[in-house]
Amino acid sequence: xxxxxxFKQDDIEDPLIRKQYWHESFSDSAQALLKRVLKxxxxxxxxxxxxxxxxxxxxxxxxxxxxxxxxxxxALPHVKTISKWYSTVDASxxxxxxxxxxxKIKAAEASQxxxxxxxxxxxxxxxxxxxIESDGRKTYGYVDLGTGSExxxxxxxxxxxxxxxxxxxxxxxxxxxxxLINKLNASEKANILINCLEFxxxxxxxxxxxxxxxxxxxxxxxxxxxxxxxxHLDLKxxxxxxxxxxxxxxxxxxxxxxxxxxxxxxxxxxxxxxxxRVIDWKFVEKLYYTQETEGLHLANKLRRRHLLWMREKxxxxxxxxxxxxxxxxxxxxxxxxxKNPDFADSDATSxxxxxxxxxxxxxxxxxxxxKKEFEKPLSVFTEEKYFQFLEECEVYIKNLKYAGKLIIxxxxxxxxxxxLINIKSIQLLYTKLVKEEKLLKFILTYxxxxxxxxxxxxxxxSKGGFNNNPTSRQFQAIMKRLLIHQEISGSENANAVxxxxxxxxxxxxxxxxxxxxxxxxxxxxxxxSISDDINLNRNIWHLxxxxxxxxxxxxxxxxxxxxxxxxxxxxLEVLETSDTISKLQVRKRYGVLVNASQYVITVCRVGENVFxxxxxxxxxLRSNLSKIHSIVINQVLQxxxxxxxxxxxxxxYDDEPLSNHFIGLTKLILKKYINLRxxxxxxxxxxxHLRIRPKLTKTILFSHQ
Length: 705
Known about the structure:
The chain starts with 8 loop residues before the first helix and ends with a helix. It folds into 4 domains: 4-87, no CATH class; 94-252, no CATH class; 255-448, no CATH class; 517-687, no CATH class. The protein is of the alpha+beta class. The longest helix has 27 residues, at 661-687. The protein has helices at 9-13, 15-25, 28-39, 48-60, 62-71, 79-87, 97-112, 186-201, 216-224, 254-268, 282-294, 304-307, 316-322, 325-337, 347-362, 383-398, 414-436, 451-462, 472-484, 516-533, 545-562, 569-575, 583-587, 598-617, 628-639, 661-687, 693-702; strands spanning 94-95, 118-127, 133-134, 139-140, 159-167, 173-181, 206-212, 238-240, 247-252, 270-272, 278-280, 401-402, 405-406. The protein is globular. Residues 24-85 form the THAP9-like helix-turn-helix domain. Pfam families: TNP-like_GBD, TNP-like_RNaseH_C, TNP-like_RNaseH_N, Tnp_P_element. It comes from Callosobruchus maculatus. Residues 255-377 form the Transposable element P transposase-like GTP-binding insertion domain.
C-alpha cells in the first residue's frame, strides 16, 4: 500500500494515479465520508458504507458520533435520521422477519454455487432488569412470547430467551428471534423450539444441531422432542426435524459442561477412577501453595482465584486453566522429577486434568491451520485419532466413582453426562456430513459452542456502558487525555453544563526536563547504600531444586528474546546449547523451546538469588526506588562465579575491560530477567486482593436489578 507521501507531485495530477491513491489509502467507509464532505450541500442519499459506519459509531457512543458529525461538516446523518432507520425494523419479541430475509439471501447465494448452508441453532436466556415501563402507547416489561405483551396476567418478564443461528460452513451468525419470559417448563420451551425450526426452514438454511447450557429444563426439552438423555447406557443424542425428519444433533455447551466438571471436582474434593486411584483436589491446592512459597510458577496460570472458584464459578477461563495440561505437567514435575513427598500418588489427578484438557480442545477447534495436537478441526486427517481418544474418554467418564457410586448416577452428573452426549453427537454429525454425504470437508467444533450467543449478550450489556469504576492507571490515562486534548465536551444531560466558551486547558505532551546530574548523583548514592545492605554470601546458594529448574526454564525464554536483539555471532553461540538442562522444559516441550546455555542459566540463578534477597529487605513495590535494575545487576556482577566468562574465550578481550561483550550481554540477560520477576511480583500483589466485583455483579444481574 502506498500513501500520500509516496507520490510525486506529477503523479498526483494524473487522474489515474489519484484514483489509485484514493482507493489504496482509504477504507470504503472513509471514502464514502470524504466524498460526501466534498459534495457540500448538494448531497445524495446515504450509500451502504456510510450507513453502516454511522450505525456502528452511533451504537458505540452517541457523544463520539456527534463529535465526528460536527467535525466532518455534518456529512453523517442526524441522530433523528438514524432513529427513522431503526424504526423500519420491527424488533418486537418473536421471530424476526428481517432475519428470515437475510437467511433467504444467504441460501440463494449458496444455491448458485451448488452449495447448502448448514447451521447450529444456539439458544440461551439472559437475565434482564425487572421493571415495568410505558411510553404512552405500549407497556413494556411483561412476559411476551411474540403474541403481544401479557399485561393482563400481571406476570413480569425476568429473562430474554434468544435464538441464534451459527453457520457451520460459512462465517456469519444471526439472531433469529427472542422472547420475554418468566421461567418456562419443558413442554413450553419445546413448542418454541419447534416453531423456531419451522421458521428457519422457510429460508432454505438447514439446521443440523442445537446447543444449550446445563439447565435441567433444556435436557428435558430434548427428551420431550424424542431424544433420550436420561440413560447413559442407551443415549439417543438427536431428535427429528418437525418438517424434514432429518436428525437434529444435541450439543450441551462444552464450556458449560467443563465448568460443571470443575465445580463437581472442587466440591466433592475426591473422585475415584476405574482403577481405584484417587483424583484429589488437594493436589491442585498444594500446587498453588508450593508455587507461592517458592516464588516462581511452573509455567501455569493457577492463582488464588482458581481455588476460590465459587466466587467466579461462571468464568470459563478459570475452569479451563485449573483442569489444564500445564497444571498436569506441573504436578507430574513435582511428583516424578523432584520426588516431592507432598505430591506422592498424584498421577491420577494429573491424568484427569490432562484428559479433560484434551477433550475440551477437541470441542474448541476454531482454526483450520492449528498445529496443536488436539486443536485441529475434525477431518479425515484427525478422525481416527480423535475418535479413538473420545472413545477412551467415554469409558473413563463412565467408570468415575464417588463414595463407591458411579458419578454419572449421582446428583453431580450433569457435566459428565453432557460430555458423553457431545462425544456421541459429534461422531454422528461428522459421519453424516463428512463421511457419508460428503457435504463438508471438516468441522470446526467451536461453531457448536454457546460462546457466540454469550458474546452477543456481552454486546447487549456493553451498550449501556461498563467499567464505571476505573483503576488508578485508567484514571491517570483519562486525565492525560483531558489535559492534552481540547475537544472534550461534557454530557448534555449532566448535572452541570457549559455556559460559556471556556475550554479545557491544553497541556503539552513533551517530556519534562530534569536536572540529570543531580538526579544521577542521588540515585548513585541510593544504589550504593542499598547494595551495601544486601550481603549475599557468594559461596552459598539459597535456591532450592525447584527454583534452580524453573530459572533454567525461564532462561530459555530469555534466550529466545535475546536472539532477536543480539547481532554478534559469537555471543549468539554462547546463549544456546543442544542439551536441555531444565526437567520442566522437557515436560513442556510440545512446541519449539530454546535450550539456554549454562552461562545464561548461571546468570539467571544468581540474579534470582540477589532478587530474593532484595525482596526480603525492601520489597518490589518500594516507591522511592527507581534503580532496581542497577542495584541487582551491580550485585550480580560481584557474585558471579569466576569461571562464568570462560565460554567467551578470547572474545572477551576484543573490547575494553568494562565494556566488553561479556559484561554487556550479562547486563542484558539480567535486565530481561528482572523485568519478568518484577512483572510476576506485581501480578502476585494484585492476586492477593479478594475479588468481590464479579460475585456482586452476577448477584445483581441474576436478581434482575
